[in-house]
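The freezer alarm interrupted the setup, so I double-checked each line after restarting. Inputs confirmed:
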Amino acid sequence: MEKVVEMRGITKVFPGVRANDDVNFELAKGEIHVLLGENGAGKTTLMNILYGLYQPDSGEIYVNGKKVDIKTPGDAIKLGIGMVHQHFMLVHNFTVAENIILGKEPKKGITVNMKQAIQDVKKLADLYGFKIDPEAIIEDITVGQQQKVEILKALYRGADILILDEPTAVLTPQEIEELGVILKNLVKEGKSIILITHKLKEVMSMSDRVTIVRRGKVIDTVRTSETSIDRLAEMMVGRKVSLKIDKAPAKPGKVVLEIKDLRAQDHRGLPVLKGVNLEVRSGEILGIAGVDGNGQSELIEVITGLRKSTGGKFILNGKDLTGKSPREIIEAGIAHIPEDRHKRGLVLKYSLAENAVLGKHYAAPFAKGIMMNYARIKEYARTLIRDFDVRTPNEEVMASALSGGNQQKMVAAREINKDPELLIAAQPTRGLDVGAIEYIHKRLVMERDRGRAVLLVSLELDEILNLSDRIAVIYDGEIVGILDAKNATENELGILMAGGSLKNKKEGGIV
Amino acid sequence: MTANANNSHNSLLNVLKSTYRTLLFPLISIIVAMFVAVLFVVWGRGVGFFEGTSLLFKAIWNGSFGSKDSLIETFVYVTPLLFTGLANAVAFKTGLFNIGVEGQFTIGVLITAILGLISGLPAIVHIPLIIVGGILAGAIWGGIPGYLKAKVGTNEVVNTIMMNFIAMYLSNYIVMGPLNKPGVASTPEIRPSAMLWRFLGENNRLNTGLFIGLLLIALVYILFWKTTIGYEIRAVGLNPYAAEYGGISIKKNMILAMVISGGIAGLGGAIYVSGIQHNAMELTGFIGYGFDGIAVALLAKSHPVGVLFASILFGALNSSAISLQLVNIPKQIVFLIQAIIIIFVAADYIYKWIGEKRKKEAMING
Amino acid sequence: MDNASLPVVVALMAATLRQATPLILASLGGVFSERSGVVNIGLDGIMTCGAFFGVYGSYKTGSPAMGILFAIIAGMIVSSIHAFLSIHLKADQVVSGVAINLFSGALTSYLLLVLFNRQGQTDGVNALTYPKAFMRGIPVIGGFLSELNWYVFMAIILVFVTYFILYKTSLGLRIRAVGEHPKAADTLGVNVYAIRYLCVILSGALGGLAGASLSLGTTNLFREGMVSGRGFIALAAMIFGGWRPFGAMWASILFAFADAFQIVAQGFGWAIPYQFYSALPYILTMIALAGFVGKTTAPAADGVPYTKGER
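Predicted 3D structure, all chains:
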C-alpha cells in the first residue's frame, strides 16, 4: 500500500480546547478515506492543518513519503493537496472561471488571459464530466454546482489528494448520488480522497476505509467492508448507542400549535418552505427529522418571529401569530432553545444573571417601567443554576466562561422556566458531552409529561427516534411524512429524508 | 468552587483583576504617548531627555492644574468633553460608531445660538428651552443616520461623517447669512436669560454646565446598567442575533442609541454656547469637541466614569497650550499626545493578542 | 482665472478639473484600500501629510519633483501605520483612521513650527512649471489645456492605470477577491495580508500625491487646514462612484463642478448660498447610499479584519 499522506502525532490546541490530541492518520493512494466523527470531534481541524490553514502545535506530516512543513494553503497546493470546505470558499460576485483561476491565473503579458481561463475550465470540466458554465456568476448557480466549482478549483491546481469537508450536508439526494459518481471517477483517474463526515450511511456507501475521531483523538482505522454501521456508531460516540430514554407513553391532548401551508424564502430569495402543514399537541414531543438544509432552521425561525413568512399561517392555541414580532411570540407562550447557542442563545459577554432573563428582561418582576431589578434577576438566576445543575462559581460570571454543556443547560433552564405553551428545541444537544445530552433529554421528556407541547428539531436520527412521540420528516421545504415513533424505523425515515416515498417501497421499487 | 464562603472573596478579587485589566491598557497608552511627546520636545528644542521631560510636564502641570486660573480653565475644556465623550460611549455600547457627534454638537451650538436670541423670556423658561432645543436638534441629527442604518442598512460611519459637514455648512449659512452680526463672523450674543450661571464670577468661564455634565455621567451609568434600555442596547451591541432572539428589536435600539447619543451631543453644544461661547461663530474647520469625544470614549472604554477621567486628561492637555508656548514648546504637542494615545488605544489588540498567546501556551505546557 | 478672454464654460471646465484632481487621486487611494477590505478614513490626514511634505521636499531640495516624491513617501509611511494597526493588530479601522487624521493634523502643524519656524503657513516654494504658453498654442483646445496643470494629467492617467490593475491583471483579481472573501483567497494561496498591506500603502501613496497636488499644485505653499475635509469628500466620491475607479473620477468631477460652479453662479447673481454647494457632495452621497440613486454596494469584507487560522 502506497501512502500518499501520513500525519503523525498531530496536536492542536485552541484557547480552551484540545482540538487534536496526538492524532495519527494515513491516506493510501487511490482510496476514498472517511474521517468520521461527531461535530466538534476535531476532523476539520486535522484537515485544516493538512491544508496549511492551521499550524499544528506538535506533530509531523509526510506527503508521498517526504516530511513536509505546510505553512500556508499555497504550500499544500504545491504538494498536490486540494480542499473543498464545508462552507464554500467562493467569491460570490466573481464568475466560475475567475473563482477557479484565482491565485494561478493564466497570463498574457501582464494581464489575465480570460479566454484561456475559460477554455481551461471547460476542458477540465469536460474531463471529469461536470456540466458547468465557466462564465456564470457564482451567486446565480445552485449549491450543487458551487460544490463542483470547488472541486474544479482543486483539480485546476493539479490536486492529487482531495479533501472534502462534509460535502453532502447541503446537497439534495440526487446531487449526493451524483457526487458519489464523481468521486469514483476521480479515484479512477488516480486521485486519493479524504471525506469528512458524520453521516454513517455515506461512509458505508462511499468509502474504502474509515478513521474514527472522537474528542480530538483517533479511535481506530478500519476497512469499510469489514465493519458495520452499528460498530462505527459505537466507535464514533464512544459507547453502545443506546441513549434510550425511559419514558412513559405520551398522553397527547389538544392541538397547541397548528401550522398551515407555511411558506418562506431564504436569504437569496429562493423558496425554502414550500407549504408546511403540521400540528403539535400538548403532552407530546414531535420530532422533525431531515437532512440539514431542507428548511428545518427556517421553519423554526418563522414560528419564533425571526424570519418573515411569505404565505400560510401558524396558530398557537387558537391565536394567529403569523407575522408577529419575536417579543409578541415569546409573550404568547413559545419558548425556544436555539440551534446555535453562541449565535442566538446567549450574549456571551453578559453575566449568567443577565442571560437568565433574556426575553423577559422588560417585564415584572425583573423590571418596572424602564428600571431593572437586578436583585430579583440575580436571585432568579441562582434558582435556575440550582435547578438545572449549571456548574458555575456564581451567577455573575460571564456566559463565555462556561463549558458548552453548562451554557446549554443555562439556555434550556431559561426557556423551560418561561413555562411556555410550546417548547421548541432545535438541535438541543449539538456538541455536548454525553452527560449533558442525557440531562437535556430528561428535561425535555419532563416538560412533555407536564403537558407541554414540545417541537424537537434534530439532525441526529437517534435523538429523534429516542425522544419523539411522533416524527415528521421534512424534505425540500415540505413535510413529506409523519410517522408514529413507536413503529418508525431508521430505514423508513432515511427513505423519506432522501425524498423517497414509503408507498413505493411497499410496492417494491425505490432507492 | 469548593465553598460558598469563598465566592464573595473571589468575586471581589475578580472585580479588582478586571479593573486592573481594563485600566492597564489606557494607562500604557498615555505613558507611551507622553514618552513620544518628550522625544518631540527633545528634538524640537534641542534639549536633553530629562530636561525635555521636566519642561513638558512642568508646562502641562502649570497650564492645567498648577494655579487656580488654570484649574478653572481645564474644567472649562472638560465640560463639553463630558458630553461628547458620553455621546460616543452610548453609540459604542450599541456597536455603532457615531463619528457624527461633532456634527450633532455643532447643531446643538447652532440651535442654541438661535433660541438664545429670543427676547423677553425669564431664565427659568429660557434655559430649559435651549436645553430641550439642543437635545432635540442633536437627537434629530443623530437619529437620521440611525434611521438610515436601521431601515436602509447604510453604514452609519459614512453617513455621520457626511452629516458633520452638512452641519458645519448649515451652521455657516445661518451664522453668515440670516443671523449674522454685522461686521463679525458670528451671530449676536445670546440674551443673558439664556446664559448659564458662571459661579466663579463673570471673568471665569466655568459654569453650571459642568454640573449638568457630571449629573449626566450618573444618568448614563444608570441608563447602561440599571434600565431595560441599557440592557437592550448593550445586548444589541454585543450580540445582535441573541438580542433579536430575545425579542429585542435591533432596529429600534440602533435608532434609539443614535438618538440618545445625538441628544447628549446636542446638549453638549447647547451647554457650550450658553455657558462658554455665548454665540455661534463661522467655522473654517470643525469645533473639534466631537472628535475629541471619540478619543475620550475610547480611552474610557465607553465607561461613563472613565469618561470623566479621560475628559479631565484631555481638558488638562488642551488648557496647557498657553503655558507650553511660554516655554517655547509648540502647543501642537498636546494634539500630538492625544493622537498618539488614540493610536495606542486602537492598538488594544496587542494586549489581547499577547494575553491569548499566553493562555494557549499554558494549555500546551499543562 | 487670469485669462479673461476664455469663454466662461471653458474656464469652468478647467477649474472643475483642477479642483477635482486631489479628489480623484485620493478617491483612487480609497478604491485600492477598500477594494482590498480596509476602510481608510485616514485619507484626509494622509493628504495633509502629503501636502506638507510635498512643500517641505520642494523647500529642502529646490525641486518640486522631489517634493512630489516626499509627499508620496510621507503618505506611504503614514498609511503603513494604518495598515499595521488594522491588518496586523486588527484594530477597529475607523478608530485607526480617526487616529491617523488627528495625528497628521497635529504632526504637520508641529513640524511647521519646528522645520519652517512659521505659524499657520509656509513660504512659497518651487512648483512644477507648466508650459502654459505652449499649451495655448495648441489649436481648438489650447485655451482649455493652458488652464490645467500636470496633476490633472497625472490624475486622469492614474484612473486608467487603476482600472487596468483592478480589472485586467491578476493582482487586481486577487485584490478584489481579498476584499470580497479573504478566506477564499487565502485557501488558494493568495497572501491576504500582503495584498492588504500593498493596497493600504498604495492608497497612502495616492493620498500623499493628492495632498501634493493641493499644496504644490495650487498655492505653492502649505497652510494649516488647507485639506479642509477633501479627504472625506474623496471618500464620498469613492462611495458615490461605487468603489470603481471611473465612478470615483466622475463623482470627484461632479463634486468639483458644484464647487467651481458656485463662483460662476455668484457671477450670475444667483441667490443660492455658497454653503449649499459646499454641502452638496455630502448630501448627494447620503442620497446615493440610501439607494435613491442606483445601488452602491461596498466590498463584502470591507472593514472586517482577517484572522488567519481563525476557528
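Quick read of the result. Chain B touches chain C through 46 residues (CB under 8 Å).
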